[in-house]
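hi! just following up on the protien thing from before. the input was this:
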Amino acid sequence: MQIIKDKQIIDDSWNYIIDDADLEPGDISVSLARWKKDKQQLLEREGKLGVRMGPADSVEDFAADLKDLQLIELDFPAFADGRIFSHAWLLRGRYNYQGEIRATGHYLPDQVFYLSRVGVNAFSPEKTEDLPVTLANLDDFSVKYQTSIN
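and the predicted 3d structure came back as:
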């Protein structure tokens, strides 16, 4: 599968592991709940680690662990929930997280410019055919009136 990262279409090397599935080798992400439950086991395995968080999750719940994570996935269950924007801003602005922040789930292509303004640098559209439109939307505006993360 392909994603957009840093304004380029690339192959995705990450696998999301659902909570009750066995851990796989390679680069994986898990839910915040699984991270909290299996943190030591996850840290002992080979490969990069990521956490997927939803709108109801709290960045503060794992802020001390950010140094161990190379990916934070922000999962949009519905495009009407804006808390994900705040999560991205907190990760970059308050906690100075330097790893990949990826939008997944039900976000609109029209939202990617604004997501990039609060620190999201990777996008995983639901359909591969949406990659060119999503990439183009990152350059929707040439002038920015407000300061932001980027």
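DSSP finds four helices and eight strands in the chain.
The chain has one domain: 2-137.
cheers
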